[in-house]
Structures are given as structure tokens and as C-alpha cells.
Amino acid sequence: MSDPVSAADRTLLVRLNRRSRAGIEELCDDLGVTATAVRQRLARLTDAGLIDRRPVSVGRGRPRHLYGLTPDGRRALGSNYQELADAMWSALSEVEDEKVRAFLFGRLQDTLVSRYGGDSAGEGELLQRLAGLRDALEVHGFTVEIDDSGPLPILREHHCPYLDISEDDPQICELEQRVFERVLGTGVSLTRCCRDGDSCCEFTPEGPALTHLSPANAGVTP
């Protein structure tokens, strides 16, 4: 499965998505390249429909332009997974037998919990578990960070590999939320979501570790 976005352009998209919107100066600092190089990448990505440009008034003189990702740009960040995820979800959703479908969704959830949490799912301090989940997601190509500046830490996911699916079926968001709850061993709120037009998805644990959530009480209703 080929990636339509080059490594250099993907790096710019990731940096831009983290900032939500940014000017050429900020991108030069982030990427460590010249303004000419940044402008060339921005022009290429704008022509491809992956970013847009908005003027911002800064007093007298010419307005400053800030760049941000378009919906297609956010999809491009998840393009490594999109076709596989679409096909998998479509196949599961088309299973007519409700019991079989529920069983398959449960096994999918178990597989993701094992992938992102391993044998230590639900163990350790909350920040340790969050860091472990972040590291596991990054190994599988996600761009995530932990924001611990507030009363409760936030796991921020900077692109959604399931964006197309979620626009038709928000159950995929619920599945990811339940997986994170089981990995972290506590309830998790989805406080921001790319499906709603946000530049990222944010998952906020509801507090210290609760009783470990089992598949029976953490399942997605198909």
C-alpha cells in the first residue's frame, strides 16, 4: 500500500496539525529549514488540497497568512491505515448474525487491548500507563502526546486513521475509547474528536485507576 505523501511533507503536516494553524516562521523553527523550502512544501500541499491558507490581520500593512490542514490533509496523515481499517470495519459491520457480530467486535477489542497494553494493561500509576499507551500507539504509526498541565492528564491523538469510518459510523470512536479504558484501567472521556472537525482527538481519564474493565462491561454494542 503506497503512501501518497512524502516523508518530508508528512513531517510538515504533523507539525502543522500539532499547532492547528501556523505561519511560515513557526514552521521554519519547527522543521529547521529555510523559508524557501517551507514555501515550496506549502505550495505543493496547498495544490494537493491538503492544507489551506487564511489571512490574519496584524495591524497596518499586509496581512499575515496562517496555514492549517484541510479534512483531506487530516485523512492523509492516517492514509497508511485507512484502506485496511475501512475494509475491516465494513466486513465486520456486514455480518448479519448479531451474536457473531458481537463476538467479532469483542475479539477485535481484545486484540487492540493486547497490542496497546500487553500483559500490563491496567497496572501501574496513571501517568505510567498513559506513557505506555502513548509509546505503543507511536510504534504503530500514531502521532500522540500527553498533556499533563491540567488536573487530569490528556492523551492527544494528532490524526485519526479511522476518520472516514467515523463519519459514517461513530461506533469506531467508541471502540477506541473502550480499548483505551481497558488499557488504562479507568474510565476515559472523548473530549475532542476529529469527526467533529477538531484538529485532534483528546482522551481524558476520569480519575485514578478504577476496577479493571473487563470485555464484558467495556464492549461496544454492535
TrEMBL record:
Gene3D superfamilies: Winged helix-like DNA-binding domain superfamily/Winged helix DNA-binding domain. Coiled coil: none annotated. CDD domains: HTH_ARSR (cd00090). GO terms for molecular function: sequence-specific DNA binding. One of its GO terms (biological process) is regulation of DNA-templated transcription. This is Uncharacterized protein. It comes from Alienimonas californiensis.
